[in-house]
Structure formats: structure tokens, C-alpha cells
Amino acid sequence: MKQYVADFETTIPKTKEITETTRVWGYGIAEIGDITNFMCGTQLDEFMGWCKKGENKEVFFHNLKFDGAFLIQWLFRNGFTYSRAKKDKPDKSFSCLISSMGQFYSIEVIWSSHKKRYRKTEFKDSLKKLPFPVKVIAEAFGLEMKKGDIDYKTERPEGHQLTPDEIDYIRNDVQIVAQALGIQFDQGLTQMTVGSDSFTSYKTMLGGGDKKTGQKR
After folding, report:
1. What is the pLDDT of residues 92-124, one digit of tens each?
2. Could you please report the per-residue DSSP string of 151-166?
3. Could you tell me if 30 and 175 are in contact, meaning their C-beta atoms sit under 8 angstroms apart?
4. Can you tell me whether residue 2 is helix, strand or coil?
5. Judging by beta carbons within 10 Å of its beta carbon (0-12, 13-18, 19+), is residue 147 exposed, middle or buried?
6. DSSP state, residue 90
7. Cβ–Cβ contacts within 10 Å for residue 120, how many?
8. What is the pTM of this model?
9. In this predicted model, what pLDDT tens digit does every residue of 41-62 receive, in sequence order?
């Protein structure tokens, strides 16, 4: 399963409340392991079409709680149903892993199924693995690429076409996170959260110690 980093640019900043009229005006996608595989666009329908097409995908958003709200709205508006099924998951369904505190960990979308084989996309939260702003991530990992700036107060009506500056801004955001995740994955840090990565590393240091006692087996 290929892994990607994606990001939405919307008509409100990520610190504000999402409403029914809030919309995505831009998106970007970069492949983890090959950040030159970058694409961007302006339509949420187009982004979801890419998710559905081809191979199963694992897509990271840096703050899934925010971007995931747009995903869930789109799913409900397009006839998807929420399912708690562990097996035999129905076509056009989705499930979420959300804590009692409202922390988003993952959203799994089942596009179709055939003989218990699923065409699916799993969205995950890179913020759980890299709990820092994108600017800090670039600095912490010593990346040459730096986070840019855009004016969020600029009017971007329906039909707005991305400017070169907006494309560069979106590209940097997804490629920075994709590079950092790629470094983590190469180091064997493949768990869903930084805490799980730390615990797994701790057990490895102990030679596969017992979860409860920490004693070597």
C-alpha cells in the first residue's frame, strides 16, 4: 500500500470552526518515499476521485481532526454510511477511530468489496507522529525546504485557480511532512502515534520485553 501526505486549504483557517458553507479551495498530495510525485487541485470531488482510483492508499493529514471533517461531510453527501463492522464491511461505508476526547486517529473508507477484498483508503493523522507545526518539523529534521506563507484573507471564490505562490505553499507543506514521515518509517517508526513508536523502541531495546513488566523474555 503506497503512502502519501495530503493537505486541504479551506475558506477558513484551521483554528476556526467548520460550518456547512466552509469549503476546500485547494489540495496537495505528495508521496512518501518519492516527494517529486506531487499533485494539486482545487476540487474536493477531484481529490476523493484520486483516493478511489487505483491501488489502496494510506493518506496522512497533519491534523486529521480538521481535514477529516471535510472528508466525513463529503462521504455523507455522497451516499456513504458509517459502519462499525469488523468483517464483511459494506460497499460505500466508512469507519473512524476517534478517542473519547475527540482526538482523530484514522478514517477508513471502503469504496467497494469483492470476496472480502476491499478497495479502500485509510486516512491517518501525522500530527500524532509529528506533534509539531510544519515549520518546526522542517527545522527539527534539518530539511532544506521551509514552510511558506500565503494570505488567508484573500478572496477565493468558486472556480478560483491556484496561483504559482499558492501551489508552492501547498507543495512545501505536504513535502515537508512526507520527508519527515519517510525518515521515521526508514527508522522503523511505523506505529500510529509517537507514543506507540516509543514503546515499540523501548521493547526492542529490552530485547522484546514483556509489556507489563518490561522484563526480557
Report:
1. 999 999 999 889 999 999 999 887 789 999 999
2. -TTS---TTPPPPHHH
3. yes
4. strand
5. middle
6. P
7. 20
8. 0.87
9. 999 999 999 999 999 999 999 9
pLDDT less than 70: residues of the chain: 13-15, 192, 194-217
DSSP secondary structure string for all residues of 97-129: EE-TT--EEEEEEEEEEETTEEEEEEEEEGGGT
Give the C-alpha separation, 30 to 57, whole Å. Answer: 12
% of the chain exceeding 70 in pLDDT: 87
User: At CA 106, angle to CA 3 and CA 67, rounded to 5?
Assistant: 85
Residues forming beta bridges with residue 61, ordered by sequence position:
6, 125
Which grid cell sits at 85?
A: 463492522
**Cα–Cα distance for residue pair 51/217, rounded to 1 Å:** 43
Burial class of residue 164, CB neighbours in 10 A (0-12, 13-18, 19+): exposed
Q: What is the pLDDT of residue 216?
A: 41
Q: Which three cell numbers stand for residue 7?
A: 493537505
